[in-house]
């Protein structure tokens, strides 16, 4: 009977739960789904990670390649993130060129990398104007159940922490680059940006970590990215109904606590990799 | 029917802004919006037919296309399109036109900073010109935080490049609350609150300008 009600009147079904301050899957309004993290799963990549927030599963693989630095920034390397939403993850996405959601997510991740100063780009440069690293970060969603942006940020952070780059020297005689695969250095990560997504229901109720159904029924979506010094790296609200000042402040506070939880998780997993070796 | 170009000299920290409506004959509504040297041309088609794959049974489908000055639209334009589209969807009364489409096309004529703000302002003026029913109007203001911590509203491209954070907000006309927020760079919570307050203050001027320009336009029709 509840299944029939849910199909016929999905909004009323969700409202009846929100009245009791909980959600259909039993969570509180401010509760995140259990988050699990697995790193180094893709052996052919220079760094990789897999994250699951509830049912949402996102994997990231990092490939480092050598290239000439761009002419307007000759002493910096660069990172190219790409978010892919294949038809595998949800019936919403059709095969073909990337849709708006995937492209907007790719741009958002690129902005977060730059805003949070995650990696010092000058360190990716090997020789000014001649040689630098370019890190291709391919983020693919395997199962879409809402809250894509949070998962993408966590998986990218974990994969970058896991990435090992070989030492490269330029042979003075041949002027060619030589990579020493035996000597590998991890990347230096300056900041730990973590995102928290919220959905606004009926212009007044804010729920944390929406599932795909909750996202489709919500009137607005908000993602707040904070770093470990409680500075904001992104306040991303691409439209929808308005949000008052105190609700926004409440979201920011929740995002700051989430940052601490996820930083602990990422550090724990990275440490466990080191001790396993 | 063309209306005179209206230029407004602002007394606070916004650059000189102006708008012209109803300049193109084919779209149902069109407008340009100029902020300093940044200029956007907007055209609105709607309510019109929609492809069966994109139709929504109980409301209109909003599509936004942003054409950059040079080259083909890329990932950056898609992210801006998402912001403009969702802001328009919240403002328009879409349930009055089910299974139809509203298409907003924005052409960048010149980019000298505050591009997303100018796009949103041009889109709002074009939607007004098309006569589409809206529950509220919206306008947008960009704030840049310089390296010394000074907040500049409506920055030029040079000021944007030298800033450490850039925040764009869209404000609605009825309750003056934040509809859309898009930020780059890192900033503290206090700086965010300051920028929101400044944007709301600056939006008063822009809403006043919308009101005057529409009043002036319709008082000419006898």
Automatic annotation (TrEMBL), chain A:
GO cellular component: cytoplasmic exosome (RNase complex); nuclear exosome (RNase complex); nucleolus
Gene3D superfamilies tied to this protein: GHMP Kinase, N-terminal domain
Superkingdom of this protein's organism: Eukaryota
Localization, UniProt: Cytoplasm; Nucleus, Nucleolus
GO molecular function, one term: mRNA 3'-UTR AU-rich region binding
InterPro entries, sorted: ExoRNase_PH_dom1, ExoRNase_PH_dom2, ExoRNase_PH_dom2_sf, Exosome_comp_Rrp42_subfam, PNPase/RNase_PH_dom_sf, Ribosomal_Su5_D2-typ_SF, Rrp43
Keyword Lipid biosynthesis carried by entry: no
Protein name (Swiss-Prot/TrEMBL): Exosome complex component RRP43
Originating species: Cyprinus carpio (Common carp)
The gene coding this protein: exosc8
Automatic annotation (TrEMBL), chain B:
GO BP annotations listed: nuclear mRNA surveillance; poly(A)-dependent snoRNA 3'-end processing; rRNA catabolic process; rRNA processing; U4 snRNA 3'-end processing
One Pfam family recorded for the sequence: RNase_PH
Gene3D superfamilies reported for this sequence: GHMP Kinase, N-terminal domain
Subcellular location: Cytoplasm; Nucleus, Nucleolus
Main location group: cytoplasm
Residues spanning the membrane: none
Record-annotated Exoribonuclease phosphorolytic domain positions: 15-133, 136-202
Keywords: Cytoplasm, DNA-binding, Exosome, Nucleus, Phosphoprotein, rRNA processing
SUPFAM superfamilies in UniProt: Ribonuclease PH domain 2-like (SSF55666), Ribosomal protein S5 domain 2-like (SSF54211)
InterPro entries registered for this protein in UniProt: ExoRNase_PH_dom1 (IPR001247), ExoRNase_PH_dom2 (IPR015847), ExoRNase_PH_dom2_sf (IPR036345), PNPase/RNase_PH_dom_sf (IPR027408), Ribosomal_Su5_D2-typ_SF (IPR020568), RNase_PH (IPR050080)
PANTHER family tied to this protein: EXOSOME COMPLEX COMPONENT (PTHR11953), EXOSOME COMPLEX COMPONENT RRP46 (PTHR11953:SF1)
Subunit annotation: Homodimer. Component of the RNA exosome core complex (Exo-9), composed of EXOSC1, EXOSC2, EXOSC3, EXOSC4, EXOSC5, EXOSC6, EXOSC7, EXOSC8 and EXOSC9; within the complex interacts with EXOSC3, EXOSC8, and EXOSC9. The catalytically inactive RNA exosome core complex (Exo-9) associates with the catalytic subunit EXOSC10/RRP6. Exo-9 may associate with DIS3 to form the nucleolar exosome complex, or DIS3L to form the cytoplasmic exosome complex.
Family from the record: Belongs to the RNase PH family.
Name listed for the protein in its UniProt record: Exosome complex component RRP46
